[in-house]
C-alpha cells in the first residue's frame, strides 16, 4: 500500500519511473471523463450486485435460522461453502458456459422450442456480470445475516405476537430491524471486493464493460504507467473508503437502535 501511494506521486518515464514528486497523476485522474464514467459504472454495478446478493441471501439466512433444525444447521452451512472448493476463476468460466450463446440456458430453451435464436442479453453485459458476482459472493452475505438472526432473542418475537401482531408485521417491526447490523455488514463485505473485481468484467463482460480495476490493470501492465495506475488505485480506494464509512455509520446507528 505504501509503495502504491509513493508511486502515485512520481513521474512516468519510458519503461521506468522518474523519482520526482508531482501531482500530475491525480490531476489527470480526477479531470479525466473516462475515469468518472468507469468509476460511476463500477459503483453502480457494485451496488446492483450488493442489492441482488443481499436480497437473495436474506431468505436463505432466515430459513437457516428459523426453519432448519439446530442439529442440521452445521450441515447447511457446510453446503453453502461448497462453491469455495473450486477456484473463483473456474466458477466465472462456468458461468460463461452457462450463459453463452450456445450455453446451457440457450441450448435448453432451443431444445424446448421456446426460442429460435440464442438470447443475447444474458452474456457480455451488466446482467451477466451481476448474476456471476452475486453467485460468487452469496456466502459472504448469507453468513453475517445468519449470525445476526441467530442472536435475536426469540422471546421478542413471541412478545410481538402476544401483542396482536401477525407474523408479517412481527418480521417487519422486530426481526428485520434486529437483523439490520448483519445486513449492513453483508452489504459492506460484498460491495468492497465487487468494485475491485476485474476478472468478471473481462470474461463475462467480454471486455465491453470495463470497471475501475480493469482501468488500473491496463495502466499498470498494458501501458506500463505505474504512477498513473497507482493514482487510479489510490483514488478508487479513497472512494471505496468513503462508502465504507457510510456503511459503518449505518451499522453503528442500527446497533444503537437495537440496544
From TrEMBL:
Say if the entry is tagged with keyword Zinc-finger: no
**Protein's UniProt keywords contain Cell membrane:** yes
- SUPFAM superfamilies given for it? MetI-like
The ABC transmembrane type-1 domain extends over 39-249
Family statement drawn from the similarity comment of this UniProt entry: Belongs to the binding-protein-dependent transport system permease family. CysTW subfamily.
The record's PANTHER family line, in alphabetical order, gives:
INNER MEMBRANE ABC TRANSPORTER PERMEASE PROTEIN YDCU-RELATED, INNER MEMBRANE ABC TRANSPORTER PERMEASE PROTEIN YDCU-RELATED-RELATED
Q: What is this protein called?
A: ABC transporter permease
> What is the organism field in this record?
Paracoccus cavernae
Amino acid at each position: 500500500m505504501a509503495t502504491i501511494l509513493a508511486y502515485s506521486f512520481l513521474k512516468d518515464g519510458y519503461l521506468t519511473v522518474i523519482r520526482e514528486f508531482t501531482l500530475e497523476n491525480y490531476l489527470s485522474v480526477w479531470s479525466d471523463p473516462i475515469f468518472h464514467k468507469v468509476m460511476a459504472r463500477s459503483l453502480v454495478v457494485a451496488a446492483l450486485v450488493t442489492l441482488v446478493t443481499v436480497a437473495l441471501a436474506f431468505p436463505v439466512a432466515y430459513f437457516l435460522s428459523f426453519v432448519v433444525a439446530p442439529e442440521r444447521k452445521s450441515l447447511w452451512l457446510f453446503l453453502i461453502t461448497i462453491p469455495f472448493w473450486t477456484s473463483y476463476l473456474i466458477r466465472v468460466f462456468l458461468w460463461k458456459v452457462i450463459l453463452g450463446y450456445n450455453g446451457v440456458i440457450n441450448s435448453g430453451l432451443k431444445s424446448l422450442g421456446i426460442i429460435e435464436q440464442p438470447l443475447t442479453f444474458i452474456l457480455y453485459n451488466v446482467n451477466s456480470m451481476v448474476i456471476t458476482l452475486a453467485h460468487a459472493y452469496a456466502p459472504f452475505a448469507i453468513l453475517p445475516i445468519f449470525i445476526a438472526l441467530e442472536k435475536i432473542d426469540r422471546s421478542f418475537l413471541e412478545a410481538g405476537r402476544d401483542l396482536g401482531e401477525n407474523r408479517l408485521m412481527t418480521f417487519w417491526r422486530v426481526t428485520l430491524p434486529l437483523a439490520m447490523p448483519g445486513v449492513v455488514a453483508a452489504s459492506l463485505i460484498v460491495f468492497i471486493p465487487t468494485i475491485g473485481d476485474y476478472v468478471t468484467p473481462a470474461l463475462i463482460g467480454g471486455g465491453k464493460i470495463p470497471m475501475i480495476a480493469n482501468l488500473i490493470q491496463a495502466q499498470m501492465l498494458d501501458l506500463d504507467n505505474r504512477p498513473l495506475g497507482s493514482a487510479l488505485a489510490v483514488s478508487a480506494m479513497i472512494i471505496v473508503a468513503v462508502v465504507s464509512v457510510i456503511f459503518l455509520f449505518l451499522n453503528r446507528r442500527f446497533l444503537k437502535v437495537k440496544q
